[in-house]
Amino acid sequence: MMGRLCKGGCMIGPSILNSDLSRLAEECQRMLDAGADYLHLDVMDGHFVPNLTFGAPVVASLRDKFPGVLFEVHMMVSNPEQWIDDMSKAGADIYTFHLESSENPHQTIQKIRSKGMHAGCGIKPKTPVEPLSELAPLLDVLLVMTVEPGFGGQSFMTDMMPKVKYLRERHPDANIEVDGGLSPKTIEIAAEAGANLIVSGSAVVKSSDPKGVMTQLRDVVNRYRDSEKAEA
Ligand code: DX5
Ligand code: ZN
Q1: What's the CA-to-centroid distance between 182 and ligand 1, angstroms?
Q2: Which residue of 22, 83, 96, 231 is most buried, as measured by CB atoms within 10 A?
Q3: Residues with catalytic annotation?
Q4: Which run of H or of E encompasses 198?
Q5: Residue 43 is part of which domain span?
Q6: Residue 151 domain-assigned?
Q7: From CA 113, how far away is CA 109, in angstroms rounded?
Q8: What tens digit of pLDDT does each residue of 143-188 get?
Q9: Which pTM does this prediction carry?
Q10: CA end-to-end distance (rounded Å), the chain
Q11: Ligand 1 contact via 201 beta carbon (within 6 Å)
Q12: CATH number, domain with residue 226
């Protein structure tokens, strides 16, 4: 159901980073009409990653237009605690920070929760998975980046899949999210590894049939999730 993060089930969250940003609301609406389960909003500060996007005012404007929609803010920023308050006021539902940029992840998670948001934590490709796995019981979303964060449209890194498998083996009901280069071509391998939250930017927004693409992504993930449940 729109607006809810349900544990372990497949959800498709388009990233609007590579859409026509001059028409942001229309692009979000187009994604929602095509069956998006949530919107993945990429926040970049030009410091943690070599690119700039937008902050809380843009999230607040989108919240006004889309009251019941689940928003994840993917915080690719150097000081993630700085924006927790603003993002919660702006109406973000899931606040996903990067493990690399938090001095005290326990405290960051606690602050996110104290503002009534779900807490997500992500790791860049060169970051080992073990510390994220240790935090898993405290988190609502475990994000494994499948590209170097900063830009849409990059190639999916298959060699990140052992991290996803590692997390799925240890946390069977967790929300494991993959972000970067997800498309009908790469979904099979991500789903097989155990991902259930799928962020997809260019493959969805640049498609003439975003609904078809999202349906395909969802079907593949559900197939693997169902077979895993049957085995358990
Ligand atoms: C990359 C962003 C991603 C990106 C995904 O830094 O975090 O969310 O926009 O876009 P694609 O699917 O095009 O790789
Ligand atoms: Zn992202």
Answers
A1: 9
A2: 96
A3: 42, 179
A4: strand 197-200
A5: 11-231
A6: yes
A7: 6
A8: 999 999 999 999 999 999 999 999 999 999 999 999 999 999 999 9
A9: 0.97
A10: 25
A11: yes
A12: 3.20.20.70
